[in-house]
Amino acid sequence: MATKSRLMLLLLFLALSGIQTTVYGQQLREAFRKVHQSVVIVRTKEIDVSNSSNQVISIIDGLGSGVLISADGKILTAAHMVQTADVASVEFPDGQEITARVIGADVRSDVALLQLKQIPTGILPATLGDSNKIG
């Protein structure tokens, strides 16, 4: 009898776990649908130039991600991605590639804000949440 009870509890636990996983998966899928057009690829170039001859010694490419957060072309990304970059560009899921410049960064919290040189067509910014409203 004890074995039957344990088996029933295990089956009940697995069934409830599956429900929770399904709900979480649905929430994640819905969140992705809302923001996927706003998620971007951030490409950077760091150009090392010789002090004596002004010749390019090396070009270091960087690759990361970011999110369009405003209709006027602001991109939220990681500070470590752009802190030493000489050139930055942003690529949208539809293939649009737009040059950007760093307008602010906080290395301690590893966040940076880029400003696009032009506004992408047909792309809506992601809606940011308010952590004060989380219960």
Quick overview of this protein structure:
By secondary structure, this protein is of the alpha+beta class.
Q: What does this 3D model show about the protein?
A:
It is a single chain. The chain has a domain at 37-116: Thrombin, subunit H, CATH 2.40.10. It has 135 residues and is α+β, with helices and mostly antiparallel strands. It starts with a helix and ends in a 19-residue tail after the last strand. It has helices at residues 2-35, 79-82, and strands at residues 39-49, 56-68, 74-77, 87-91, 97-106, 111-116. It has two helices and six strands.
Helix and strand element order: HEEEHEEE
Give the C-level CATH assignment of the domain at 37-116: Mainly Beta
Q: Ranges with pLDDT <50 over ≥5 residues?
A: none
Spatial shape = elongated
Structural class: alpha+beta
Mean pLDDT: 83
How large is the share of residues in beta strands? 35-45%
According to CATH, the homologous superfamily of the domain at 37-116 is: Trypsin-like serine proteases
